[in-house]
Design brief:
The chain is mainly β. The protein folds into two domains: about 5-160, Rossmann fold (3-Layer(aba) Sandwich); about 165-325, Porin, CATH 2.40.160.20. It is about 15% helix and about 55% strand. It is built from three helices and 17 strands. An eight-stranded antiparallel beta barrel has the order 8-9-10-11-12-13-14-17. α1 runs parallel beside α3 (about 100-120). The radius of gyration is 27 Å and the shape is elongated.
Length: about 325
């Protein structure tokens, strides 16, 4: 069995916890599996070429690469690579658009690193580097990484144009339980959102929950319409964490069978909600989503039989959702 291809990735300490670095490391590791290993070393300052080679030798790495940024906005990246089989350093520059998400930039860099390794590894030390099972989400490469003709000058920069996915549809299953009263229900919810920036989105939603009021021997249908916004708070690799809030318009209806007849009463009521969200990107345009939080109605709903109150639908409910997202 061939020895693993160990690659040492050197990054500045200020970039160690950046979503771009996480995305690059994850993408490179996936691309190099099962024969490649990526080790990450964060330092206050990137070392000189000689120091980088010495660090690689300590961990028995057959390749060392430095991730450099030409600006604080991370618009242009430079991969500075050396392989044990080569006496020269290899460089590739990648330009990004302002609207490119950090995680997408990282996936592009990870793919570029894997491609450089596959192109320049000497036959004696060659390790098959399978291409990633899927292209970097939300990213199209105009000049895709490919073999660079042997020249004495610098290789041309790799120009990256991102396909920005600004819209998304969420289809989830939602459940709610009342705090201090009967308000349990489950059902589907469909929402759409538009990303104004990488971290801020507007959203609208509609859903239905089916439940029961045992005290009134009645079934319930709660139809919820929502409009609000969502904010991304943190991102690490394929995972994003955020929070959302909405203004609600709810139609609550109770139905009861009595003496062969169906009695139904309903009311409209306003409200608001606040939920924490978690998203895991499973494919370029698909993600799994979950959310949990609370919603509050702007008033209670009393349920009476024969003029006698038998139960109350409370103001507050705990809400949880899980489902899938498709980006466009």
């Amino acid at each position: 069995m061939a020895d693993p291809l160990i690659v040492l990735l050197l990054v500045a300490a200020t970039d160690a916890k950046d979503a771009t670095t996480f995305g690059m490391t994850a993408a490179a590791r996936r691309a190099l599996e099962p024969t490649g290993v990526v080790l990450v070393d964060a330092r206050p300052e990137l070392p000189s070429d000689a120091e980088a080679l010495a660090l690689a030798d300590r961990v028995h790495a057959r390749g060392v690469v430095e991730l450099m940024w030409a600006d604080e906005q991370h618009r242009r990246a430079r991969l500075h690579l050396h392989l044990a089989s080569d006496t020269d350093w290899l460089d590739r520059e990648i330009d990004f658009l302002p609207e490119d998400a950090p995680a997408e930039r990282g996936r592009t860099l990870g793919l570029a690193l894997a491609t450089m390794l596959a192109e320049h590894a000497a036959p004696a030390e060659h390790v098959d580097v399978p291409p990633p099972s899927e292209p970097p989400p939300s990213t199209s490469v105009e000049d895709a990484p490919r073999a660079i003709p042997a020249t004495t000058g610098e290789p041309p920069p790799l120009r990256v144009a991102a396909k920005v996915r600004r819209a998304a549809l969420d289809l989830v299953g939602a459940g709610a339980v009342g705090l201090g009263g009967e308000a349990a229900g489950v059902g589907p919810s469909l929402s759409g959102r538009w990303l104004a920036t990488d971290s801020l989105a507007a959203r609208v939603a509609a859903g239905a929950r089916f439940g029961a009021l045992p005290a009134a021997d009645a079934s319930t249908l709660t139809v919820v319409f929502a409009a609000g916004g969502a904010v991304r708070l943190a991102a690490a690799g394929d995972v994003e964490i955020g929070v959302r809030g909405d203004v609600l318009l709810t139609r609550f209806a109770a139905r009861r069978e009595q003496a062969g007849a169906t009695l139904e009463r309903s009311r409209w009521i306003g409200g608001a909600d606040l939920l924490a969200e978690a998203t895991w990107t499973a494919a370029p345009s698909t993600a799994l989503v979950t959310a949990a939080g609370a919603e509050v109605a702007f008033g209670p709903t009393d349920v009476a039989l024969g003029g006698v109150q038998v139960t109350r639908v409370p103001l507050a409910r705990l809400v949880a959702e899980a489902g899938a997202r498709v980006r466009f």
